[in-house]
Amino acid sequence: MTHDQQGLAMTGAGAVAARHYDRAIDHLLHFRAEVAGEADAALAESPDFPMGNVLAAYLRLLTTEAADARAARTAFLAFLRRADESRLDPRERAHVAAVRALLDGDLLTGAARLAELTVAYPRDVLALAAGHQLDFLTGDARMLRDRIGGALNAWHEDDPHYGRLLGMYAFGLEEAGHYDRSEEVGLRAVELDRRDVWGVHAVVHTYEMQGRFGDGLRYLDARMPDWSAGTFFNVHTWWHYCLYALEAGEEARVTAVHDAVMSYVGAGRFGAAERLIAGREAYALEPRPGVTNRDMTLRVGLPVCRAILAFGRGDHEAVVDLLYPLRHRVNEFGGSHAQRDAVQRTLLESALRAGRLDLARVLVSERVNLRPCSPYNWLKQAALARAAGDHAAAAAARTHATHLTRASGSAPEEGRPPHVTGTTGDKERGSR
Asked: CA Rg, the chain, in Å?
């Protein structure tokens, strides 16, 4: 019997396979593409290594790609046919139970089983990382915080992955609204490991939620070599960069980044968007009892997709009719507050363009009172006032937005162009 670098026993693995497994875990926590090669190498050394097979299954299942899920099912069921489950230790059996739930499409049960596992094994970093991703995919802010927070006291600062746990915990704190603590923990995570992209991500989320877009731009600019390329997460972080630049009125930066990624509706590819929606509609009509994603697709995913397509076509009444009833339920499709705010902004913009000024007034009031430091929110206040014919109020709101932008000190250095790297070649896993 061998042990992983946290001291947890593993059956069925030789020393070489165990080293590959440990390296794979390190790459996983850094969101590096090398995780797949190390996981494959572990199984090449010890094909029936239970934790190696569990790791390979999580890697495929948490991509959210259908082809990867099918490959996970084929490989993991083949492993189970060869394995004698009675010879697995309790921790390994618990992982197998979690993988079985995920293979059935039941993300909530898989997440719950991993939470039970970490009560007994708080130093099982794979269980913590996989569970954290499931909490992200299902939009469970409380568990994003407490899954990691409940395990932290079993760790010490000299543990090799302690910093990465802090990065995960910081993100959970931010999603649960603890912004001061999130910033503190996230900065400490990056201090311990400057390439902890999840820690960087947590800090920039915190700044986004507080409207501190100038701080966000400066933070990302100062650390660009550490996060901007070489991981599954760099495209997502560039998106955060664009949010900051958009708030600061720096459209050139936003365009430079946007030109290196693609979107269906924004690029006028309506046919591709229609095919995607048709595929999701066919998927949702298939009987899939207990499949978390199917239920979410019917309740939230398809209406949001249809609304985005309607927005691109200028049918703003349809956008409002689709999005307004579910605006307080978009957390069901997972992701973060910052990502889901794209839906809320789309609803507000369509309410303005459709002349639904009473609704737009409510939406703007919510935003301005929640984040009065956001130039975007005040620009929407200006648009609303202009649509209502109150030009003095519109001018005052625009002036205030300009003041907030200047006060942030977010302007780039004179003559420095936006620098965009690594945004097209790296596939993101579990970060959509």
From this structure: 23
Amino acid at 382: A
DSSP letter for each residue of 348-372? HHHHHHTT-HHHHHHHHHHHHHH-T
| 92 in any annotated domain | yes
Examine residue 254 and state whether it is found in any structural domain, yes or no. Answer: no
Beta bridge partners of 10: 2
Q: Report the alpha-carbon distance of residue 199 to residue 188 in Å, rounded.
A: 8
| Identity of residue 154 | A
Q: With respect to residue 17, please indicate whether it lies within any of the assigned structural domains.
A: yes
Confidence of residue 1 (pLDDT cuts 50, 70, 90): confident
Cα angle, residue 18 at apex, residues 69 and 165 outer, rounded to 5°: 70
Residue 144 or 246, more confident: 144
pLDDT score at 230: 86
Tell me whether residue 117 is in a domain: yes
∠ at Cα 367 (255, 341), nearest 5°? 50
**Cα 30 from Cα 270, distance rounded (Å):** 36
273 phi and psi, to 5 degrees?
A: -65, -40
How many domains does the chain fold into?
A: 1
- Residue 69, domain extent: 1-138
φ and ψ of 144, to 5 deg: -55, -35
Distances from the Cα of 283 to the Cα of 279, 300, 359, 388, 429, angstroms: 6, 14, 33, 43, 21
Q: Are 377 and 363 in contact (CB under 8 A)?
A: no
Q: Is the pLDDT at 127 greater than 70, yes or no?
A: yes
pLDDT at 354: 96
